[in-house]
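Researcher: Go.
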Amino acid sequence: MSQLPIAYVDVRFCAHATEDLDKVMEAVQNILPNEYLEEIVFNRSSLEGHYGNPIAFFETRIKDKKIIKALVEQLAVNLSDLDKDELDRRIHLCIEKGSLYIRLDKQAAFKGKTKLVTSDPIRIRIRFRKSKTEDVIAVCKEIGMIN
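Model: Structure:
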């Protein structure tokens, strides 16, 4: 697919005080397309956890079409068939108002793997140009994100 019907991709994640910030950044970079790492800039803000612990929060919005295409294709290629099946089964729970929400495992990403997870994730929001759930699902199948 030469032109993906995607408006932008948001990437968000937290680094807790107990985590090595360099390792968390490396994990996130492992899920991003290598050739565009220098072009993807994260905004950092400081948050406070429930018990007063410091949390670094990072986010970026990717609007560049070539980076979006590379990122989405990389996610589709690197997700295991098991994760693709799981996403396919639960996709109605992951789509809201034309956006697909995916949560990726930071630990697995640090090891170079792309794996779905529910807690303490790297959050990916893919905002599609069409908002109908059926359209989003059709594109996800076409790009190989789900089976």
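Model: Residues 33 and 70 are 6 Å apart (CA to CA).
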